[in-house]
């Protein structure tokens, strides 16, 4: 059965079910087919769904008629009985799979025939309902199935456009390092393994977590619940994660479920896990080990079946060495680790993602603007400290400010505009001077910029700066001296 759908929290607290983010398909393409041999049931389904969801619903009395209708026009969702004359529900699903018809199927079944419904789900049905269904549950489930369909249709369109190899669910990339990550996700998707995703801000950690959730046939039936640990004050964290009983502390006016409970049967995404305070780390460790916990103020153990994905833009290994993160929790989270490369190390992704974001943000009804060669060169030469999120924001702005359907360099944000002053090499090819000379200038300017940025991140610590840059400490020190960079300026005051 559908799990957790009825237990949504306000969006600012819990982002349940990634498919909820997907924009609905155009009304014209949202159509439901009800396949049912009992006329009264058929009609009550039709009336209820049309009235409650405002969507056109067609009806078929058996599998054979349904197949004819599915061949004639697209349907987003099909609700089918299993036991019917002529072609029964199971054979209908088999045919749909064989013909690769893009419809999301919900099966209905009488009490006592749950095994058949489970069998239908193994064959590709999305979910099942026991008859007679609770009207509210039916509508919630159909809405979820419609969102699932929209997501699948969008992904199919995207894949057709950019080629299957360059997309894993919602994660686009042309970078070989990312292909290895796609393969790894493929291996772990069907397990309940805990995953740790490390990567700079905006590299797509949440996007990858959602892809893992979607790629798992088991977990995607449950919700995806994201917890942004850095945004939660320490005093609230325990009750947010584990819930509380009524009266357990001042202000606990009613019992409340925590995020672990809300994510049951799905995925819990712990974003910025490096910000979890020490006091909470020990409690989290216990839950990960025992897969059970008590609500704050409660004494009843609640068992959960959840995949935990943790993400951080900090280096947890270093935090462990510095005594800021528990080693046992680190190893518990780090069963499978995904290191997301920053955008500057995957330049092949810049044109792919830029084009994708331009299409996403193009004003509706207009053709997406064209990215000029000069603007593309500017994108390729930028270091993208904010990674994919920064590129997305830049493309959103460019779509708004583009004139005559063309994005030119001046439509890009100020960060990407050339800055006046010495030391900034221009990327404009000057044919009056030798190439080697200009390349040397560009390299010097880029090294300086890179080192300054890395020192800022490393808070003036040369060793950490060396680690970030992948260079030895000695070469970093030599370059710092050569470029006369004052490391003290980057140390916290
Ligand atoms: N490979 C990708 N393909 C398409 N869109 C992507 C990809 N990676 C990231 N995005 C988009 O970029 C934006 C930032 O991604 P996301 O929020 O997943 O990054 P993050 O690493 O979790 O960021 P933070 O460290 O700030 O939490 C999102 O809008 C996401 O949809």
Automatic annotation (TrEMBL):
Residues 1-28 are annotated as: Disordered. Residues 1-14 have a biased composition (Basic and acidic residues). Gene3D superfamilies: 1.10.8.60, 3.40.50.2300, Homeodomain-like, P-loop containing nucleotide triphosphate hydrolases. Residues 171-400 form the Sigma-54 factor interaction domain. It comes from the Bacteria. GO terms for molecular function: ATP binding; sequence-specific DNA binding. GO terms for biological process: phosphorelay signal transduction system; regulation of DNA-templated transcription. InterPro entries: AAA+_ATPase, AAA_lid_NorR, CheY-like_superfamily, Homeodomain-like_sf, HTH_Fis, P-loop_NTPase, Sig_transdc_resp-reg_receiver, Sigma_54_int. The modification 4-aspartylphosphate is found at residue 81. Residues 31-146 form the Response regulatory domain. Keywords: ATP-binding, Nucleotide-binding, Phosphoprotein, Plasmid, Transcription, Transcription regulation. It holds the Pfam family HTH_8. This is Transcriptional regulatory protein ZraR. The lineage of its organism: Bacteria, Pseudomonadati, Planctomycetota, Planctomycetia, Isosphaerales.
